[in-house]
Amino acid sequence: MAKLIDARHIQVGYAQHPIINDLSITISRGQITTLIGPNGSGKSTLIRAMAKLLKIDQGVLTFDDQNLTTLSHKMLAKKLAVLPQTTQAKPELTVAELVTFGRLPYRKPLSGLTALDREKIDWALTKAHLTTLKDRPLTNLSGGQRQRAWIAMAIAQDTDTIILDEPTTYLDLPHQLEVMQLIQELNQSADRTIIMALHDLNHAARFSDNLIAIKDGALAASGTVNDVMTAENLRRIFNIDATLIAYEGRPLILTYETATPAEDVQ
Amino acid sequence: MKKQSFTVTLLGCVVLLIGLMAASLRWGADQTSLHNVWQAVTAAKTTNLDQQIVRTIRVPRVLGAALIGTALAGSGALMQSVTKNPLADSGLLGINAGAGFLLTICLAFFPHLTTLQTTAWAVVGAAMSAALIFAISTMQQTQLNPSTLVLAGIAISSLFTALSEGLALVGQLKQDLAFWYFSGMGAVSWSQLNHLGPWLLIGLIVALCLAPSLNIAYLSDNTAHSLGKSLPVLRALALVTVVILSGVSVALVGTITFVGLLVPHLARFLVGTNYRRVMPITLLLGASLTVAADLVARMVNPPQETPFGIIIALIGVPCFIYLARKEPHYAE
Protein backbone atom coordinates (compact mmCIF):
# COMPACT_ATOMS: atom_id res chain seq x y z
CA MET A 1 0.00 0.00 0.00
CA ALA A 2 1.40 3.37 -1.04
CA LYS A 3 2.27 5.63 1.83
CA LEU A 4 0.60 9.05 1.88
CA ILE A 5 1.72 10.35 5.25
CA ASP A 6 4.84 9.25 7.04
CA ALA A 7 5.53 10.79 10.42
CA ARG A 8 8.88 10.03 12.03
CA HIS A 9 9.45 10.81 15.71
CA ILE A 10 7.38 13.97 15.61
CA GLN A 11 6.86 16.26 18.57
CA VAL A 12 4.01 18.74 18.45
CA GLY A 13 2.63 21.06 21.07
CA TYR A 14 1.30 24.44 22.00
CA ALA A 15 4.13 26.77 23.03
CA GLN A 16 6.68 24.81 25.12
CA HIS A 17 4.21 22.16 26.16
CA PRO A 18 4.47 19.05 23.95
CA ILE A 19 1.19 17.23 23.46
CA ILE A 20 2.55 14.68 21.03
CA ASN A 21 5.93 13.25 21.79
CA ASP A 22 8.11 11.04 19.60
CA LEU A 23 5.21 9.72 17.52
CA SER A 24 5.79 7.68 14.37
CA ILE A 25 2.91 6.64 12.13
CA THR A 26 2.19 5.95 8.48
CA ILE A 27 -1.11 6.50 6.69
CA SER A 28 -1.90 4.72 3.43
CA ARG A 29 -3.31 6.26 0.30
CA GLY A 30 -6.88 5.48 -0.78
CA GLN A 31 -8.04 4.22 2.60
CA ILE A 32 -10.10 5.40 5.53
CA THR A 33 -7.82 5.80 8.53
CA THR A 34 -9.39 6.79 11.84
CA LEU A 35 -7.66 8.19 14.89
CA ILE A 36 -9.15 7.00 18.17
CA GLY A 37 -8.20 7.77 21.73
CA PRO A 38 -9.52 9.33 24.94
CA ASN A 39 -10.27 13.04 25.28
CA GLY A 40 -7.06 15.02 25.44
CA SER A 41 -4.96 12.18 24.00
CA GLY A 42 -3.69 14.31 21.14
CA LYS A 43 -5.95 13.30 18.23
CA SER A 44 -6.84 16.86 17.27
CA THR A 45 -3.25 17.98 17.75
CA LEU A 46 -2.04 15.25 15.39
CA ILE A 47 -4.71 16.20 12.85
CA ARG A 48 -3.73 19.84 13.04
CA ALA A 49 -0.07 18.92 12.64
CA MET A 50 -0.83 16.81 9.55
CA ALA A 51 -2.80 19.74 8.08
CA LYS A 52 0.10 22.11 8.81
CA LEU A 53 -2.04 24.13 11.20
CA LEU A 54 0.41 23.46 14.01
CA LYS A 55 4.17 23.52 13.78
CA ILE A 56 6.01 20.24 14.12
CA ASP A 57 8.74 21.00 16.67
CA GLN A 58 10.83 17.90 16.14
CA GLY A 59 10.89 14.98 13.72
CA VAL A 60 9.79 14.90 10.12
CA LEU A 61 6.39 14.49 8.54
CA THR A 62 6.23 13.79 4.83
CA PHE A 63 3.04 14.23 2.88
CA ASP A 64 2.93 12.67 -0.57
CA ASP A 65 6.75 12.17 -0.37
CA GLN A 66 7.36 15.85 0.35
CA ASN A 67 8.45 17.29 3.66
CA LEU A 68 5.43 19.14 5.02
CA THR A 69 7.54 22.15 5.94
CA THR A 70 8.48 22.66 2.28
CA LEU A 71 4.83 22.75 1.15
CA SER A 72 3.14 26.15 1.22
CA HIS A 73 -0.40 26.45 2.54
CA LYS A 74 -1.51 27.24 -0.98
CA MET A 75 0.11 24.12 -2.45
CA LEU A 76 -1.17 21.98 0.38
CA ALA A 77 -4.71 23.33 -0.13
CA LYS A 78 -4.78 21.59 -3.53
CA LYS A 79 -3.77 18.25 -2.02
CA LEU A 80 -5.52 18.24 1.31
CA ALA A 81 -8.90 19.51 2.53
CA VAL A 82 -9.50 19.90 6.25
CA LEU A 83 -12.75 20.04 8.18
CA PRO A 84 -12.00 21.29 11.69
CA GLN A 85 -13.92 20.19 14.76
CA THR A 86 -15.62 23.52 15.20
CA THR A 87 -16.56 25.56 12.18
CA GLN A 88 -17.54 29.17 11.93
CA ALA A 89 -18.95 31.25 9.12
CA LYS A 90 -21.15 34.22 8.55
CA PRO A 91 -24.67 33.06 9.53
CA GLU A 92 -26.21 34.53 6.38
CA LEU A 93 -23.82 32.57 4.15
CA THR A 94 -25.65 30.20 1.81
CA VAL A 95 -24.70 26.59 1.17
CA ALA A 96 -23.60 27.42 -2.38
CA GLU A 97 -21.45 30.33 -1.18
CA LEU A 98 -19.77 28.13 1.42
CA VAL A 99 -19.09 25.39 -1.13
CA THR A 100 -17.65 28.02 -3.50
CA PHE A 101 -14.96 28.75 -0.87
CA GLY A 102 -13.65 25.27 -1.64
CA ARG A 103 -12.44 26.62 -4.99
CA LEU A 104 -10.29 29.34 -3.41
CA PRO A 105 -7.00 27.44 -3.80
CA TYR A 106 -7.55 27.45 -7.57
CA ARG A 107 -8.86 30.96 -8.11
CA LYS A 108 -6.83 33.86 -9.42
CA PRO A 109 -7.13 37.24 -7.69
CA LEU A 110 -10.06 39.39 -8.79
CA SER A 111 -11.37 36.88 -11.34
CA GLY A 112 -14.68 35.07 -11.48
CA LEU A 113 -15.48 31.38 -11.35
CA THR A 114 -14.26 29.23 -14.23
CA ALA A 115 -16.34 26.53 -15.90
CA LEU A 116 -14.28 23.95 -14.00
CA ASP A 117 -15.01 25.72 -10.70
CA ARG A 118 -18.74 25.60 -11.40
CA GLU A 119 -18.57 21.95 -12.40
CA LYS A 120 -16.74 20.99 -9.19
CA ILE A 121 -19.16 23.02 -7.05
CA ASP A 122 -22.17 21.33 -8.65
CA TRP A 123 -20.51 17.96 -8.22
CA ALA A 124 -19.80 18.60 -4.53
CA LEU A 125 -23.40 19.72 -3.96
CA THR A 126 -24.70 16.60 -5.68
CA LYS A 127 -22.37 14.30 -3.74
CA ALA A 128 -23.46 15.83 -0.44
CA HIS A 129 -27.15 15.73 -1.49
CA LEU A 130 -27.46 19.47 -1.06
CA THR A 131 -28.52 20.58 -4.54
CA THR A 132 -32.04 21.47 -3.42
CA LEU A 133 -30.72 23.33 -0.36
CA LYS A 134 -27.99 25.30 -2.10
CA ASP A 135 -29.56 28.74 -1.69
CA ARG A 136 -30.43 28.27 1.98
CA PRO A 137 -28.46 30.21 4.59
CA LEU A 138 -26.42 28.00 6.93
CA THR A 139 -28.46 29.12 9.95
CA ASN A 140 -31.61 27.63 8.43
CA LEU A 141 -30.11 24.14 8.16
CA SER A 142 -30.25 21.24 10.58
CA GLY A 143 -27.00 20.20 12.25
CA GLY A 144 -26.55 17.29 9.87
CA GLN A 145 -27.25 19.40 6.79
CA ARG A 146 -24.80 22.05 7.98
CA GLN A 147 -22.10 19.46 8.52
CA ARG A 148 -22.74 18.07 5.02
CA ALA A 149 -22.40 21.60 3.67
CA TRP A 150 -18.95 21.89 5.25
CA ILE A 151 -18.00 18.49 3.88
CA ALA A 152 -19.23 19.66 0.47
CA MET A 153 -16.83 22.60 0.73
CA ALA A 154 -14.02 20.12 1.34
CA ILE A 155 -15.23 18.04 -1.64
CA ALA A 156 -15.25 21.10 -3.90
CA GLN A 157 -11.62 21.66 -2.95
CA ASP A 158 -11.06 18.58 -5.14
CA THR A 159 -8.16 17.18 -3.14
CA ASP A 160 -7.10 13.55 -3.03
CA THR A 161 -7.15 13.62 0.74
CA ILE A 162 -9.76 14.88 3.20
CA ILE A 163 -9.07 15.23 6.91
CA LEU A 164 -12.02 15.49 9.31
CA ASP A 165 -11.81 16.19 13.02
CA GLU A 166 -14.75 14.52 14.77
CA PRO A 167 -17.22 15.17 11.97
CA THR A 168 -20.20 13.66 13.84
CA THR A 169 -19.92 15.57 17.13
CA TYR A 170 -23.20 17.17 18.24
CA LEU A 171 -25.24 15.21 15.68
CA ASP A 172 -28.04 12.80 16.49
CA LEU A 173 -27.86 9.15 15.40
CA PRO A 174 -29.47 9.40 11.95
CA HIS A 175 -27.43 12.51 11.10
CA GLN A 176 -24.24 10.83 12.30
CA LEU A 177 -24.97 7.91 9.99
CA GLU A 178 -25.73 10.29 7.13
CA VAL A 179 -22.32 11.95 7.53
CA MET A 180 -20.45 8.66 7.92
CA GLN A 181 -22.09 7.24 4.80
CA LEU A 182 -21.16 10.35 2.85
CA ILE A 183 -17.55 9.98 3.97
CA GLN A 184 -17.56 6.30 3.02
CA GLU A 185 -18.99 7.11 -0.38
CA LEU A 186 -16.26 9.68 -0.98
CA ASN A 187 -13.68 7.02 -0.26
CA GLN A 188 -15.27 4.27 -2.29
CA SER A 189 -16.70 6.00 -5.35
CA ALA A 190 -14.54 9.13 -5.53
CA ASP A 191 -11.33 7.42 -4.37
CA ARG A 192 -10.54 9.94 -1.65
CA THR A 193 -8.11 9.15 1.13
CA ILE A 194 -9.93 9.87 4.38
CA ILE A 195 -8.22 10.64 7.67
CA MET A 196 -10.47 11.43 10.60
CA ALA A 197 -10.76 11.49 14.35
CA LEU A 198 -13.82 9.81 15.85
CA HIS A 199 -15.13 9.28 19.36
CA ASP A 200 -17.68 6.63 18.45
CA LEU A 201 -15.65 3.41 18.39
CA ASN A 202 -18.42 1.44 16.67
CA HIS A 203 -18.47 3.99 13.86
CA ALA A 204 -14.69 3.82 13.71
CA ALA A 205 -14.82 0.03 13.42
CA ARG A 206 -17.65 0.01 10.91
CA PHE A 207 -16.39 2.62 8.46
CA SER A 208 -12.58 2.50 8.67
CA ASP A 209 -9.91 0.43 6.99
CA ASN A 210 -7.25 1.24 9.55
CA LEU A 211 -7.21 2.56 13.09
CA ILE A 212 -4.52 4.54 14.87
CA ALA A 213 -4.98 4.64 18.63
CA ILE A 214 -3.36 7.49 20.54
CA LYS A 215 -2.98 7.73 24.28
CA ASP A 216 -1.19 10.49 26.17
CA GLY A 217 0.33 11.82 22.96
CA ALA A 218 1.96 8.52 22.05
CA LEU A 219 1.03 5.73 19.68
CA ALA A 220 -0.94 3.04 21.56
CA ALA A 221 -1.86 0.75 18.65
CA SER A 222 -2.18 0.86 14.88
CA GLY A 223 -3.24 -1.48 12.12
CA THR A 224 -6.42 -2.87 10.62
CA VAL A 225 -9.68 -2.47 12.49
CA ASN A 226 -9.59 -6.09 13.64
CA ASP A 227 -6.00 -5.76 14.86
CA VAL A 228 -6.65 -2.65 16.92
CA MET A 229 -10.19 -3.12 18.25
CA THR A 230 -9.49 -5.86 20.76
CA ALA A 231 -10.72 -6.09 24.33
CA GLU A 232 -7.15 -5.93 25.54
CA ASN A 233 -6.33 -2.76 23.58
CA LEU A 234 -9.55 -1.05 24.66
CA ARG A 235 -8.75 -1.77 28.30
CA ARG A 236 -5.25 -0.40 27.88
CA ILE A 237 -6.25 2.74 25.90
CA PHE A 238 -9.66 3.69 27.25
CA ASN A 239 -9.62 1.90 30.58
CA ILE A 240 -12.84 0.03 29.74
CA ASP A 241 -13.90 -3.59 29.82
CA ALA A 242 -15.70 -3.97 26.51
CA THR A 243 -17.85 -6.86 25.35
CA LEU A 244 -16.98 -7.29 21.68
CA ILE A 245 -18.73 -9.37 19.08
CA ALA A 246 -18.02 -9.82 15.40
CA TYR A 247 -20.65 -8.33 13.12
CA GLU A 248 -20.25 -8.57 9.34
CA GLY A 249 -16.58 -9.33 9.83
CA ARG A 250 -15.90 -6.30 12.03
CA PRO A 251 -15.70 -5.89 15.78
CA LEU A 252 -18.70 -4.30 17.50
CA ILE A 253 -18.87 -3.13 21.11
CA LEU A 254 -22.07 -4.48 22.62
CA THR A 255 -21.56 -2.86 26.00
CA TYR A 256 -18.71 -1.79 28.26
CA GLU A 257 -17.89 -1.14 31.91
CA THR A 258 -15.16 0.83 33.63
CA ALA A 259 -12.22 -1.54 33.80
CA THR A 260 -11.59 -3.06 37.24
CA PRO A 261 -7.98 -2.51 38.27
CA ALA A 262 -6.03 -5.73 37.70
CA GLU A 263 -4.94 -6.11 41.35
CA ASP A 264 -8.57 -6.18 42.55
CA VAL A 265 -9.39 -9.21 40.44
CA GLN A 266 -8.69 -12.24 42.59
CA MET B 1 -29.32 38.41 -5.56
CA LYS B 2 -29.32 38.38 -9.37
CA LYS B 3 -26.47 39.96 -11.24
CA GLN B 4 -28.87 42.19 -13.15
CA SER B 5 -30.48 43.69 -10.07
CA PHE B 6 -27.03 44.36 -8.61
CA THR B 7 -26.10 46.32 -11.75
CA VAL B 8 -29.33 48.30 -11.41
CA THR B 9 -28.58 49.07 -7.74
CA LEU B 10 -25.01 50.06 -8.60
CA LEU B 11 -26.19 52.40 -11.35
CA GLY B 12 -28.85 53.79 -9.03
CA CYS B 13 -26.19 54.62 -6.44
CA VAL B 14 -23.99 56.29 -9.06
CA VAL B 15 -26.91 58.41 -10.29
CA LEU B 16 -27.86 59.30 -6.71
CA LEU B 17 -24.32 60.43 -5.93
CA ILE B 18 -23.99 62.51 -9.11
CA GLY B 19 -27.39 64.10 -8.45
CA LEU B 20 -26.50 64.96 -4.86
CA MET B 21 -23.14 66.39 -5.89
CA ALA B 22 -24.77 68.55 -8.56
CA ALA B 23 -27.38 69.76 -6.08
CA SER B 24 -24.67 70.43 -3.54
CA LEU B 25 -22.80 72.58 -6.06
CA ARG B 26 -25.92 74.50 -6.99
CA TRP B 27 -27.46 75.24 -3.59
CA GLY B 28 -25.94 76.82 -0.55
CA ALA B 29 -25.83 80.16 1.21
CA ASP B 30 -25.47 81.65 -2.24
CA GLN B 31 -27.84 80.16 -4.83
CA THR B 32 -26.69 79.74 -8.35
CA SER B 33 -27.90 78.08 -11.53
CA LEU B 34 -26.99 74.66 -12.88
CA HIS B 35 -25.66 76.47 -15.93
CA ASN B 36 -23.16 78.30 -13.72
CA VAL B 37 -22.23 75.03 -12.03
CA TRP B 38 -21.60 73.44 -15.43
CA GLN B 39 -19.54 76.41 -16.58
CA ALA B 40 -17.56 76.42 -13.35
CA VAL B 41 -16.70 72.77 -13.65
CA THR B 42 -15.98 72.64 -17.37
CA ALA B 43 -14.87 76.09 -18.56
CA ALA B 44 -11.14 76.75 -18.71
CA LYS B 45 -11.42 80.24 -17.27
CA THR B 46 -14.17 82.11 -15.56
CA THR B 47 -14.78 85.67 -14.40
CA ASN B 48 -18.35 85.21 -13.20
CA LEU B 49 -18.49 85.56 -9.38
CA ASP B 50 -21.00 82.72 -8.91
CA GLN B 51 -18.87 80.43 -11.03
CA GLN B 52 -15.80 81.36 -9.05
CA ILE B 53 -17.56 80.60 -5.77
CA VAL B 54 -18.52 77.20 -7.11
CA ARG B 55 -15.06 76.50 -8.42
CA THR B 56 -12.93 77.61 -5.50
CA ILE B 57 -15.22 76.85 -2.56
CA ARG B 58 -17.93 74.39 -3.45
CA VAL B 59 -16.11 71.97 -5.73
CA PRO B 60 -13.38 71.10 -3.21
CA ARG B 61 -15.97 71.00 -0.45
CA VAL B 62 -18.22 68.58 -2.32
CA LEU B 63 -15.32 66.44 -3.55
CA GLY B 64 -13.93 66.38 -0.03
CA ALA B 65 -17.28 65.37 1.44
CA ALA B 66 -17.62 62.58 -1.13
CA LEU B 67 -14.08 61.28 -0.55
CA ILE B 68 -14.43 61.37 3.22
CA GLY B 69 -17.78 59.62 3.05
CA THR B 70 -16.30 56.80 0.98
CA ALA B 71 -13.27 56.60 3.27
CA LEU B 72 -15.32 56.34 6.45
CA ALA B 73 -17.86 53.93 4.98
CA GLY B 74 -15.10 51.80 3.44
CA SER B 75 -13.27 51.68 6.79
CA GLY B 76 -16.48 50.56 8.44
CA ALA B 77 -16.97 47.73 5.95
CA LEU B 78 -13.35 46.60 6.35
CA MET B 79 -13.55 46.70 10.15
CA GLN B 80 -16.90 44.94 10.34
CA SER B 81 -15.69 42.04 8.24
CA VAL B 82 -12.20 41.44 9.64
CA THR B 83 -13.39 41.73 13.24
CA LYS B 84 -16.49 39.63 12.43
CA ASN B 85 -18.36 42.31 14.32
CA PRO B 86 -21.34 44.17 12.86
CA LEU B 87 -20.79 47.04 15.32
CA ALA B 88 -17.19 47.72 14.33
CA ASP B 89 -16.43 51.16 12.95
CA SER B 90 -13.38 53.38 13.10
CA GLY B 91 -15.35 55.83 15.24
CA LEU B 92 -16.76 53.36 17.71
CA LEU B 93 -13.47 51.49 18.07
CA GLY B 94 -11.52 54.63 18.95
CA ILE B 95 -9.37 54.86 15.81
CA ASN B 96 -10.74 58.30 14.92
CA ALA B 97 -10.29 59.45 18.52
CA GLY B 98 -6.64 58.36 18.43
CA ALA B 99 -6.10 60.39 15.28
CA GLY B 100 -7.90 63.35 16.87
CA PHE B 101 -5.69 63.15 19.96
CA LEU B 102 -2.43 63.41 18.03
CA LEU B 103 -3.91 66.22 15.95
CA THR B 104 -4.67 68.10 19.16
CA ILE B 105 -1.09 67.60 20.29
CA CYS B 106 0.08 68.99 16.93
CA LEU B 107 -2.17 72.03 17.30
CA ALA B 108 -1.15 72.64 20.91
CA PHE B 109 2.59 72.26 20.65
CA PHE B 110 3.53 72.38 16.96
CA PRO B 111 1.14 74.87 15.35
CA HIS B 112 3.43 75.46 12.38
CA LEU B 113 3.42 71.98 10.90
CA THR B 114 2.31 71.62 7.28
CA THR B 115 -0.94 69.89 6.30
CA LEU B 116 0.93 66.80 5.24
CA GLN B 117 2.86 66.66 8.51
CA THR B 118 -0.20 67.01 10.75
CA THR B 119 -1.97 64.41 8.64
CA ALA B 120 0.93 62.03 9.08
CA TRP B 121 0.60 62.48 12.84
CA ALA B 122 -3.16 61.87 12.64
CA VAL B 123 -2.41 58.60 10.83
CA VAL B 124 0.08 57.71 13.57
CA GLY B 125 -2.64 58.39 16.15
CA ALA B 126 -5.06 56.16 14.28
CA ALA B 127 -2.40 53.44 14.15
CA MET B 128 -1.83 53.82 17.89
CA SER B 129 -5.50 53.15 18.62
CA ALA B 130 -5.61 50.32 16.12
CA ALA B 131 -2.56 48.73 17.77
CA LEU B 132 -4.25 48.96 21.18
CA ILE B 133 -7.39 47.32 19.83
CA PHE B 134 -5.32 44.66 18.12
CA ALA B 135 -3.41 43.96 21.34
CA ILE B 136 -6.63 43.66 23.32
CA SER B 137 -8.22 41.39 20.75
CA THR B 138 -5.23 39.03 20.60
CA MET B 139 -4.65 38.84 24.35
CA GLN B 140 -7.17 36.05 24.57
CA GLN B 141 -6.51 32.85 22.66
CA THR B 142 -10.20 32.27 22.09
CA GLN B 143 -12.45 34.14 19.74
CA LEU B 144 -13.04 37.64 21.03
CA ASN B 145 -16.55 38.30 22.18
CA PRO B 146 -18.02 41.01 19.90
CA SER B 147 -19.20 43.09 22.84
CA THR B 148 -15.74 42.95 24.47
CA LEU B 149 -14.22 44.47 21.34
CA VAL B 150 -16.81 47.24 21.25
CA LEU B 151 -16.39 47.94 24.97
CA ALA B 152 -12.62 48.12 24.54
CA GLY B 153 -13.14 50.48 21.61
CA ILE B 154 -15.47 52.73 23.56
CA ALA B 155 -12.96 52.84 26.42
CA ILE B 156 -10.09 53.76 24.08
CA SER B 157 -12.29 56.29 22.32
CA SER B 158 -13.32 57.94 25.62
CA LEU B 159 -9.72 58.00 26.81
CA PHE B 160 -8.38 59.78 23.74
CA THR B 161 -11.34 62.15 23.53
CA ALA B 162 -10.86 63.10 27.18
CA LEU B 163 -7.12 63.60 26.69
CA SER B 164 -7.79 65.78 23.62
CA GLU B 165 -10.29 67.91 25.50
CA GLY B 166 -8.00 68.27 28.50
CA LEU B 167 -5.16 69.33 26.28
CA ALA B 168 -7.41 71.80 24.49
CA LEU B 169 -8.38 73.38 27.80
CA VAL B 170 -4.82 73.60 29.02
CA GLY B 171 -3.53 74.88 25.72
CA GLN B 172 -6.52 77.21 25.25
CA LEU B 173 -7.30 75.67 21.92
CA LYS B 174 -11.05 75.47 22.36
CA GLN B 175 -11.67 77.69 19.37
CA ASP B 176 -9.38 75.77 17.04
CA LEU B 177 -10.71 72.45 18.16
CA ALA B 178 -14.38 73.26 18.11
CA PHE B 179 -14.45 72.44 14.47
CA TRP B 180 -13.35 68.90 15.13
CA TYR B 181 -16.18 68.30 17.49
CA PHE B 182 -18.71 70.05 15.28
CA SER B 183 -16.93 68.92 12.20
CA GLY B 184 -17.89 70.48 8.94
CA MET B 185 -16.80 70.17 5.36
CA GLY B 186 -16.39 73.93 4.95
CA ALA B 187 -12.72 73.73 5.81
CA VAL B 188 -11.80 71.52 2.86
CA SER B 189 -9.72 73.50 0.40
CA TRP B 190 -8.14 72.67 -2.94
CA SER B 191 -4.68 72.60 -1.42
CA GLN B 192 -5.75 70.07 1.23
CA LEU B 193 -7.44 67.94 -1.43
CA ASN B 194 -4.33 68.00 -3.58
CA HIS B 195 -2.20 66.85 -0.67
CA LEU B 196 -4.50 64.32 0.94
CA GLY B 197 -6.85 63.19 -1.83
CA PRO B 198 -4.33 60.78 -3.36
CA TRP B 199 -3.91 58.97 -0.03
CA LEU B 200 -7.64 58.52 0.29
CA LEU B 201 -7.84 57.31 -3.31
CA ILE B 202 -5.10 54.73 -2.74
CA GLY B 203 -6.86 53.53 0.41
CA LEU B 204 -10.14 53.22 -1.46
CA ILE B 205 -8.56 51.22 -4.28
CA VAL B 206 -7.00 48.85 -1.75
CA ALA B 207 -10.38 48.52 -0.02
CA LEU B 208 -11.98 47.56 -3.34
CA CYS B 209 -9.24 45.04 -4.08
CA LEU B 210 -9.64 43.45 -0.64
CA ALA B 211 -13.41 43.19 -1.05
CA PRO B 212 -13.54 39.62 -2.48
CA SER B 213 -11.25 38.36 0.31
CA LEU B 214 -13.45 39.89 3.00
CA ASN B 215 -15.95 37.11 2.41
CA ILE B 216 -13.58 34.56 3.93
CA ALA B 217 -12.77 36.82 6.89
CA TYR B 218 -15.70 35.25 8.72
CA LEU B 219 -14.16 31.76 8.61
CA SER B 220 -11.83 30.53 11.32
CA ASP B 221 -8.10 31.15 10.79
CA ASN B 222 -7.58 27.39 10.44
CA THR B 223 -10.23 26.92 7.79
CA ALA B 224 -8.82 29.85 5.84
CA HIS B 225 -5.32 28.33 6.11
CA SER B 226 -6.52 25.00 4.81
CA LEU B 227 -8.00 26.87 1.84
CA GLY B 228 -4.55 28.38 1.26
CA LYS B 229 -5.49 31.86 2.56
CA SER B 230 -4.03 33.73 5.51
CA LEU B 231 -6.46 35.73 7.62
CA PRO B 232 -3.73 37.42 9.71
CA VAL B 233 -2.32 38.91 6.49
CA LEU B 234 -5.80 40.00 5.39
CA ARG B 235 -6.49 41.56 8.80
CA ALA B 236 -3.17 43.42 8.73
CA LEU B 237 -3.83 44.80 5.23
CA ALA B 238 -7.35 45.85 6.19
CA LEU B 239 -6.17 47.48 9.40
CA VAL B 240 -3.44 49.48 7.62
CA THR B 241 -6.02 50.65 5.07
CA VAL B 242 -8.45 51.63 7.82
CA VAL B 243 -5.72 53.54 9.67
CA ILE B 244 -4.82 55.54 6.55
CA LEU B 245 -8.43 56.21 5.54
CA SER B 246 -9.61 57.29 8.97
CA GLY B 247 -6.42 59.15 9.91
CA VAL B 248 -6.57 61.26 6.74
CA SER B 249 -10.32 61.84 7.11
CA VAL B 250 -9.92 63.07 10.67
CA ALA B 251 -7.08 65.37 9.62
CA LEU B 252 -9.35 66.86 6.95
CA VAL B 253 -12.62 67.36 8.80
CA GLY B 254 -12.39 66.00 12.31
CA THR B 255 -13.91 62.95 13.93
CA ILE B 256 -17.11 61.82 12.27
CA THR B 257 -18.75 58.77 13.73
CA PHE B 258 -21.65 56.73 12.48
CA VAL B 259 -21.00 56.87 8.73
CA GLY B 260 -18.77 53.81 8.96
CA LEU B 261 -21.23 52.00 11.17
CA LEU B 262 -24.37 52.74 9.22
CA VAL B 263 -23.46 52.62 5.54
CA PRO B 264 -22.18 49.01 5.30
CA HIS B 265 -25.41 47.86 6.95
CA LEU B 266 -27.39 49.83 4.42
CA ALA B 267 -25.36 48.29 1.58
CA ARG B 268 -25.87 44.76 2.90
CA PHE B 269 -29.57 45.50 3.21
CA LEU B 270 -29.62 46.40 -0.48
CA VAL B 271 -27.31 43.83 -2.09
CA GLY B 272 -26.87 40.94 0.36
CA THR B 273 -23.75 39.87 2.21
CA ASN B 274 -21.25 39.24 -0.60
CA TYR B 275 -18.50 41.85 -0.14
CA ARG B 276 -17.75 41.90 -3.87
CA ARG B 277 -21.07 43.73 -4.08
CA VAL B 278 -21.25 45.27 -0.63
CA MET B 279 -17.98 47.22 -0.97
CA PRO B 280 -18.71 49.27 -4.13
CA ILE B 281 -22.22 50.04 -2.89
CA THR B 282 -20.83 51.01 0.53
CA LEU B 283 -18.34 53.43 -1.03
CA LEU B 284 -21.00 55.08 -3.22
CA LEU B 285 -23.58 55.33 -0.45
CA GLY B 286 -20.98 56.66 1.99
CA ALA B 287 -20.20 59.49 -0.43
CA SER B 288 -23.90 60.17 -0.99
CA LEU B 289 -24.61 60.31 2.74
CA THR B 290 -21.84 62.81 3.54
CA VAL B 291 -22.57 64.97 0.48
CA ALA B 292 -26.28 65.02 1.39
CA ALA B 293 -25.56 65.76 5.06
CA ASP B 294 -23.20 68.57 4.08
CA LEU B 295 -25.84 70.04 1.76
CA VAL B 296 -28.47 69.90 4.50
CA ALA B 297 -26.00 71.44 6.98
CA ARG B 298 -25.70 74.46 4.68
CA MET B 299 -29.41 74.71 3.85
CA VAL B 300 -31.06 74.52 7.28
CA ASN B 301 -30.20 78.01 8.44
CA PRO B 302 -28.16 79.89 5.80
CA PRO B 303 -25.71 81.48 5.94
CA GLN B 304 -25.02 79.74 9.28
CA GLU B 305 -23.91 76.13 9.08
CA THR B 306 -25.58 73.48 11.17
CA PRO B 307 -23.01 71.05 12.64
CA PHE B 308 -22.46 68.24 10.20
CA GLY B 309 -22.42 65.52 12.88
CA ILE B 310 -25.93 66.46 13.99
CA ILE B 311 -27.26 66.03 10.47
CA ILE B 312 -25.54 62.65 10.10
CA ALA B 313 -27.06 61.51 13.38
CA LEU B 314 -30.51 62.77 12.41
CA ILE B 315 -30.39 60.91 9.09
CA GLY B 316 -28.47 57.93 10.34
CA VAL B 317 -29.97 56.94 13.65
CA PRO B 318 -33.50 56.20 12.40
CA CYS B 319 -32.05 54.32 9.40
CA PHE B 320 -29.80 52.26 11.63
CA ILE B 321 -32.54 51.40 14.10
CA TYR B 322 -34.78 50.36 11.23
CA LEU B 323 -32.06 48.12 9.73
CA ALA B 324 -31.08 46.65 13.08
CA ARG B 325 -34.67 45.67 13.78
CA LYS B 326 -35.05 44.20 10.33
CA GLU B 327 -31.95 42.00 10.56
CA PRO B 328 -32.41 39.18 13.07
CA HIS B 329 -28.69 38.26 13.06
CA TYR B 330 -27.59 41.43 14.79
CA ALA B 331 -29.14 40.08 17.95
CA GLU B 332 -26.49 37.36 18.06
From TrEMBL, chain B:
Kindly indicate whether the keyword Oxidoreductase belongs to this entry: no
Q: How does it sit in the membrane?
A: Multi-pass membrane protein
Name of protein: Ferrichrome abc transporter, permease protein
What Gene3D superfamilies does the record tag this protein with? ABC transporter involved in vitamin B12 uptake, BtuC (1.10.3470.10)
Annotated PANTHER family: FERRIC ENTEROBACTIN TRANSPORT SYSTEM PERMEASE PROTEIN, IRON(3+)-HYDROXAMATE IMPORT SYSTEM PERMEASE PROTEIN FHUB
Residue ranges spanning the membrane: these are: 62-79, 91-113, 119-137, 149-171, 200-219, 239-266, 278-300, 306-324
Location(s), subcellular = Cell membrane
Family, per the entry? Belongs to the binding-protein-dependent transport system permease family. FecCD subfamily.
Which Gene Ontology cellular component annotation is one that this UniProt entry carries? plasma membrane
Is Acyltransferase found in the keyword set?
no
* Family annotation (CDD domains): TM_ABC_iron-siderophores_like
Pfam families assigned:
FecCD
- Gene Ontology molecular functions: transmembrane transporter activity
SUPFAM superfamilies, per database record? ABC transporter involved in vitamin B12 uptake, BtuC
Q: Which UniProt keywords apply?
A: Cell membrane, Membrane, Transmembrane, Transmembrane helix, Transport
One biological process GO term for this chain?
Answer: siderophore-iron import into cell
Identify the domain of life.
Answer: Bacteria
Task: Please report the organism this UniProt entry assigns to the protein.
Answer: Lactiplantibacillus fabifermentans DSM 21115
